[in-house]
Amino acid sequence: MLKVGNIEILAKRSLAGQILDDSLLPINNNPAFIKSSFCLSVTIVQIDGVTPVAFGTITKQGNKQAYCMIDEADSQYDGLVVTVEEMPSQDDGQIILKIKTTAKPKDFSGERLFTQAFDSRDGERSLQQTILDTLVEKSIGMQECVNSTDPGLNKNITIDISASDDKTLNARLAKIRDDCGFIVTDRYQFQCVQIDRHSLIALEEKPDEDVTFERLNKDNKMALIDDYLTEIYRLVNKEMFAALCDTNGVDVILAMQGDIPCGAVLTFKHRILACYAEKEWIAGCLLAQAAHMMPNIFVTLFIQKDSSELVKRIVKGAASIQPVCRMHTVKNIPNIKWSQVFCPNLGLSIF
């Protein structure tokens, strides 16, 4: 029986854990966002077979793109490499690996370049690299390549990293770059903004078209929002978004033009998880509608820096701003209609 408390601690270090808190993992039978039907998870335990020291999750976004929500490891293993073996699991979507050996990495710096590049590491990898390699191999597949941290030229993994200060952020970025191969910085800059909800309410404009706003009826409107999200990104993971909408505490407001969605905002407690809209004024109205329902004075949301006049107004009224770094293993994600994404769903999805 795994010590689930350790998994909770690891998960809450991630951006996803900070966002959804106790609603992220299905621990103690609580209704939660992450489900094995759309999300693969890997847990690495100590030699005792019950104490988790690393945890990661990934969701597919098509055959060649995946989003890594969590890749966290206990700091006591920093600077060490391990070998692992797979343990039995009752759920195909939950992989459990047990540490066999622990060691300091071999020093190849004095060897010839060929030896540095191609000498066998005997399966030794850092915990985070082991997590990522396993997630990739079991989800979108690991192509044949020299370096196991490179999932292949056509396989791209994306992760979002945040921290409360620059020193911690840079340390985390260095670790996922050097250990896990996240070497491509996203072309866009993202930020986490905390803002007084009254500043969001002030964004509301008088509709200039026949647009109405209503809370999502999950029984008969999920298919409509699926179609709308597909317009923004063709390879959207519909099952993931459905699970998010079903997560306890998550509310969805739709902007409707007749029977057709033209925008949506997702909220959770004091957070706006995402805001999508065909036009800027619709996004402003959605954010205002969401702010009206917020119990807290301050609201937290993510934005793409300088992406629209609306976003610039949000930044101008912000109480605090914190950078969020999006990294990829191979390339930036193509074909997302960012012009319709006013608050990206960072930490949980690629848009």
From TrEMBL:
<dbReference type="Pfam" id="PF24524">
    <property type="entry name" value="DUF7596"/>
</dbReference>
<dbReference type="InterPro" id="IPR056017">
    <property type="entry name" value="DUF7596"/>
</dbReference>
<protein>
    <recommendedName>
        <fullName>DUF7596 domain-containing protein</fullName>
    </recommendedName>
</protein>
<feature type="domain" description="DUF7596">
    <location>
        <begin position="27"/>
        <end position="184"/>
    </location>
</feature>
